């Protein structure tokens, strides 16, 4: 697959403009999809409110405008008012969430730290676990180490996070009482004590995500290692009696190509948050923000978040392409 | 030795009663699994928003656990006796307690109260609590401690404006720039309102967490006992119950509505207890009196033009009600937090009809009644009349308990020869008001539907007023209107108008009971099932919790203490 991405063309200005146009199309499609979906941002308002009051609330949110005007306004807010705001220039009404009436980007900025700590931590820990697992398993396929690693990987990959998460809470939170089951987002990490507290509350959610991510990554690496081991140059190297360390390095360099694809394309997922794990431990990161916004039909928030995720995916594709060239000079 | 033991025993008894000083009890942890989105109740009407905000901003008066009005910022409750309510019921005069201060140290004046009404009644603000200020012509502040409300018409129940957690007083100095269309831009004000309550905001993270500290200017110098409070959100009801009852990480969890047996086993861990209070929330089946047939043109479907071919007969509606075992429904769905009911208005006592005739299930009687109405069993066991099958479409929102109820009710109705088709709609769609969606509970494109509703405060007049002829939804009203049954009874409308002219709780109660009976036991238009209580949990280490169904659950948080 990576091969194809690269063959499609270089990373010139044309590609960039094409990708920007793609982003615009993405935003339009997302907007129309949400517009077409049933649901009402005031659906969660208690029934005790009279229809007239609902109408007024709707008008105050600008929801009585026709859809194309709302889309244009959103584009203007996203690409003009928000960038200017970050430069310190007030160019008009910022993007406002229907739920909280707070600026969408302020809320996203507030959620980013815990998402990066926990979901990013889970991703890194998963990768760190997957590398040795994949290497060991791929070095001698069929051996007992391979079978143990494969078993562990399958377990991590197939156990849903809502099961492992709740299980960990039950064992370490309820029975043993060692770890907090609720993530405190208001914690200020100051000094060693704060850091220790932060580490303690990260252990369970990060472990859940690491197990899941490691399962997938180690399988990819193992498969690539097995494939590399069958190559002629590796057989020659082994036949010549090269040290294991060197042979492994030759194999790894080639085997890493598909792993880089998976890691780079999985990165946007880190920002997308981990909806279920965040819910179980009340991490309240970007995943919980998105799901909450979807449930509340908070259109500006859903639209902006999904657009940002789309943009990240496009960006990470570009990064994956660049990494490829660096890892495999033949593709340059 | 014995003396020492006795003294120490005495100390243990007296310790929790000893008067604590402000902030002496440290940190309080509260869990609202649906996290607050904003602390300005005028921009949101969710309990998850207005209850946490009640720790910070306060109304002139609140409702206690019995539903009685008691003064908060007001010196006393206006009445005809003390001259607070005029003889023509059109003028209400409130007097503030002298010497009140905002948490920033500035004095609270009647100008703030007047401003609050103007803020909510501004036509461009989209105020969610506008209903509480309905009928107000103008608000005056003749002197710093006096507020006079002039109503356009007699107002028999004036305890909506400035009463209860839904209409707290905002500080004029803080919100002056937030009137009308500017309301949405005031994020800082909406997230950190300056108040008179026991606590003030230190940090607000929308839909995530709120931290508070004791208000140094709170009117009772000995309160609150807690120095700091965290209100955390996220997760679900079961997780919230676990955090209080099993891990003990939190002192209080709001709305721990989980299956009754699960809640019981959690409580058995001995770390905390479950508290409930019954208000007016009633789970009910509503009957459609108009024909929802998809064969009708879209502009005539489910409108009063076409009466329902089956349910227009009161005997059929009654038979459907008789076939239900409400006690079982209550036990299965809510356990100790539910009560079988036949009333649309189950409380307060003075408004609740002594209507219990529906509690006992009577399938035999139901079948006899259907026979009498001309619906006789066909070859497949389903009753029919004039070639039409007794077939009903039964819709509700997606919710585990409601789906259990649907299955049970379907079974009971099948037992008396009624064929039932079930339909489940996503809550955001079902309760939404999207006029173009055919699946809202207002459009009612089904024969019967089930949901829960309640009323604000303690007076049911606006609640009963939903069932007047002119409130039936139709294409002419863009499918808006609260009379979803399309019920139309001139007698009901007349009696309701009489309620609007009647003052005095006893007299109002008598009329309200009659109206309730017309809709329920006499008319069988609304078939109430279960009176649902509020349920929350608090740890054994938290004292002073008094559950309240009439106002914010956190209404007396100033009195909460660390139990030792």
TrEMBL record, chain A:
- Note the topology in the membrane: Multi-pass membrane protein
Localization of this protein? Cell membrane
What sequence ranges are listed for the domain ABC transmembrane type-1?
Answer: 112-320
For this entry, list what GO says about its biological process.
transmembrane transport
The membrane spanning regions, by residue number, are 12-34, 116-139, 151-178, 255-281, 301-324
Q: Which InterPro entries match?
A: BPD_transp_1_N (IPR045621), MetI-like (IPR000515), MetI-like_sf (IPR035906)
- The reply on keyword Membrane is yes
* Source organism superkingdom: Bacteria
Q: Name one GO cellular component term.
A: plasma membrane
So which residues are the signal peptide here? none
Q: Which UniProt keywords apply?
A: Cell membrane, Membrane, Transmembrane, Transmembrane helix, Transport
Mainly resides where? membrane
Which family is this sequence assigned to? Belongs to the binding-protein-dependent transport system permease family.
> What is the name of this protein?
Peptide/nickel transport system permease protein
**In the record, what lineage is assigned to the organism producing the protein?**
Bacteria, Pseudomonadati, Pseudomonadota, Alphaproteobacteria, Rhodobacterales
TrEMBL record, chain B:
- For the keyword Signal, the answer is yes
Keyword field: Signal
- Cleavable signal peptide: 1-20
Record GO cellular component, one term: ATP-binding cassette (ABC) transporter complex
Molecular function as annotated in GO = peptide transmembrane transporter activity
**Localization per Swiss-Prot or TrEMBL:** Periplasm
Q: Where is the Solute-binding protein family domain?
A: 80-468
Q: Which InterPro entries match?
A: Peptide/Ni-bd, SBP_5, SBP_5_dom
- Primary site of residence: periplasm
Q: Which GO terms describe its biological process?
A: peptide transport
Give yes or no: UniProt keyword Ligase. Answer: no
Which family is this protein grouped under?
Belongs to the bacterial solute-binding protein 5 family.
Q: What is this protein called?
A: Peptide/nickel transport system substrate-binding protein
Q: What organism is listed for this UniProt entry? A: Paracoccus laeviglucosivorans
Q: What is the lineage of its organism?
A: Bacteria, Pseudomonadati, Pseudomonadota, Alphaproteobacteria, Rhodobacterales
